[in-house]
Amino acid sequence: MFLDASVILALLMQEPESEAIYESLSRQHRLKTSPLAIFEASSRLVRLGAKFEEAFDTVSGYLSEFAVVVIPLDFQEGKVAHACASRYHHLTGHPARLNMGDCFAYAAARTSGLKLAYKGNDFIHTDIDGVRFGP
Fold first, then answer.
1. By CB neighbour count within 10 A (0-12 exposed, 13-18 middle, 19+ buried), where does 113 fall?
2. Within a 10 A sphere around the Cβ of 95, how many other Cβ atoms?
């Protein structure tokens, strides 16, 4: 399962979905995320008052507890992210309204052959194989 920043943040912030997310992740054998998802989750913590270094340490420390593997993003993921954006990015007017981080999460999940774990309503409007948590 590939972890989108929204799932990482939901766990860290102990949002209402965090228990369901925790249980689901505990049953998985292959958990992955990307540096971009870590940056996106850390940046949200900074907006809530954390310092960048502390936010990074918090996110990466939490991910290590689940043995989440951080995969690199390369040209192939970039190509798939561009294809995703051409269909689902908010600039296209599509109901998914994905942003850059979303497009790269989509691409990383797709190229790694994993389901995308996410929170919210954005990815339900795409063709990604995913696991949705919360509203």
1. exposed
2. 12
Q: Please, what is the Cα angle at 5 between 52 and 120, to 5 degrees?
A: 135
Q: What is d(CA 62, CA 108) in angstroms, rounded to the nearest whole number?
A: 20
Q: What is the pLDDT along the chain (135 residues), one digit of tens a residue?
A: 999 999 999 999 999 999 999 999 999 989 999 999 999 999 999 999 999 999 999 999 999 989 999 999 999 999 999 999 999 999 999 999 999 999 999 999 999 999 999 999 999 999 999 999 987
**Bridge partners for 33 per DSSP:** 70
**CATH T-level topology, domain 2-133:** Rossmann fold (3.40.50)
The single-letter code of the amino acid at 1 is: M
Q: How many CB atoms lie within 10 A of CB 49?
A: 8
Q: Do 3 and 33 meet the contact criterion of CB atoms below 8 Å apart?
A: yes
**pTM (2 d.p.):** 0.93
Q: How far from 17 is each of 8, 24, 47, CA to CA, in Å?
A: 11, 11, 21
Structure tokens at 12: 């860290």
Helix (H, G, I), strand (E, B) or coil at 121: coil
